[in-house]
Write a structure and sequence with these properties.
Elements: H1 2-13, H2 15-40, H3 50-92, H4 97-138, H5 149-176, H6 179-185, H7 197-216, H8 220-254, H9 262-273, H10 275-313, E1 318-322, H11 329-343, E2 348-363, E3 370-374, E4 385-392, H12 393-398, E5 411-416, E6 429-432, E7 435-443, E8 457-463, H13 466-480, E9 493-499, H14 505-514, H15 516-520, E10 524-527, H16 528-581, H17 586-624, H18 631-665
Parallel strand pairs: 3-6, 4-8, 5-7
Antiparallel strand pairs: 1-9, 1-10, 2-3, 2-4, 2-9, 5-8, 6-7
Helix pairs in contact: 1-2, 1-4, 2-3, 2-4, 2-5, 2-16, 3-5, 3-6, 3-16, 4-5, 4-16, 7-8, 7-17, 8-9, 8-10, 8-17, 9-17, 10-16, 10-17, 10-18, 11-14, 16-18, 17-18
Amino acid sequence: MLSFKLAQKNMKKGFQAFAPFLMASVTMFVMLFVTASIGLSPTIEKLPGGDSVAQLMGFALLVLIIFSLMILVYSYRFLQLQRSREFGLYDILGFGKISIIKVAFWELLMTYLIATLIGTIVGIAFAKFLYLIFVNLIGGDYFNLIISPLAVALVAGIYLLFFSLLLVIGAVLILKSSSLDLLREETKGEKEPRSNVFTALLALLFLAAGYFIALTVDNPIVALLRFFIAVLLVIFGTYFFYVSFTIWYLKRKKKQDAYYQPHHFITISSMLYRMKANAVGLGNITILLSMTVVTVVVSLGVFFGTADMVEKQFPKEAQIISLQENNSRAELTALTEQIAAESGVNLEHLSSIYVSQDVEASRATSSADQFVTQEELGSMLDENHYLMTMTTAESLISLGNENVQHLSENQVLLVDLSEGKASSASIKTVNWHGQTYQVAGHLTELKNFPAEMTMSNSLMLVFANEAVLNRALAAYNRSNYAENTPNMNESAMTLTLFDLPEADQARFETAFNENQEAQRAHNILTFRSQALQNQKAQIGGFVFIGFVLGISFILGAALIIYYKQLSEGTQDKRSFKILQEAGFSKEQVQKTIRSQVRMIFFLPLLVTGLHFAGAYRMISQMIMLFGVTDSRLTLIISLITLVFLSAIYYLIYKATSRVYYKIVKR
């Protein structure tokens, strides 16, 4: 039991050394526990979209498991470095490496029990708090989070595996190191790294390739497919950048006359001496900051863009959709008015349209003033792939579009719905599967039309009347579908759109469900408020996952910065003491300290900004996958996120730099 008593005594007397590792263990346990407790809680089944939320939580838990293991290994390695001299003395005094490993085992076991106990208590409180945020995000009404015992057991089991791995890592390092190595480990500095032209070229190549992929993507689906490739390239490029470019820059500074000034001499020499170790830490911080920005921007962009997306899909509060063929606009309008009379509800701004949406078309290679369709449909990733919306002039006029001109049967109007992706202004004729139409005009403004989410080129064809539109659809079906597959044919539908007070929606819906004619025709009634609630339920889980991961990433960056300040302070303490004994004033030493700390810890923030600028186009395209097409909103959210993250990073820097200053000034 000597090993146990020694471990217990070490943790009590050396709590200052154990505190950072214990803090990292508890922090990551809490983040894992929050994710697992919400994902595995029986409460989740009572919320809208609970199944999809549980799946998203499972994905987030997997990401956090990998991330937590990285943080724990990093922090435990730092703890071992701090205590290597102590272990070396044990070995010299005859304690033996096996007994040292037993001491490490008991220390890890006690840390595991403390982290599990404190992490569970704090995690329960934090999980309930975040659950309230989550419920408000999705518009739910059940606020009591039930903690499943399975969540506690799962996270405790994961942590048991983590600490077992830490014990193996620690044991291997102790067994491989001699007593002399252990004694020197804490004070051993990094050798001055050599400039590596090959690594520098790799850094430029990886970063350029990652930026090129991100900047040239012009399709949301392509953005999603290429995102992980670009991320991997930028990650490798970032590490190589710090290893190569920073060393090249510092060595270049050594050749300048300014290097021989006391302030520059100490700063550059000190940083260059340990730049190999700094490069990995700076790379970790940069990657975590970049991940935080991307996660938060995508999450907030989707969340705040939801209302705008639903507003476009529902320009009026309610709509009735009739999928029955040959159901005219007048008939559906009369049915809508009949239901309103039966329910005693007054409708406002009632209008009706005849439309077919999301009709796929591939544009054949032709002159810029012609739109010629080809029979074979291409891939959605093809630049000549279009999603067509087909409607009538009467429908647009019904919605209040007074700029619609009279059309003959061989004329169409064009509306570009692709938000600048492919301008239709030059198109003068449309050859639609063998039928030719003259373009009578291009509409630049469109009022009250229910827009669909578009991720590729999108055009609207406005025909003279319903009969002409039906003939165009028939030609399309003949070209793309066999006669024996009528269920796959594209068809038009009739919609009525109208406004009514929210207080009257329940009465109108009841009358709609009781109307035999409406039910016989399988008409569908939807409300904008209900659609918004459903949409929030669907994306709420995604947004919450982004929120949790964002917190985890910034906490991870803060922990690494904290460890880096401790490590740098410990290593610089002896150097600055020698400088003061050599005649440097206290002010000169403090100036050197501030310069070095600023250069090391603000470089990741600058590189993060560059990474995000390069990835911005790809990120905005990915946000479009959720139907958010407001580029101005995405830009505003991005700028606010960068400013907010910079402020948090500065606060972390100020808080952790005090630790560095205290160690160095002792």
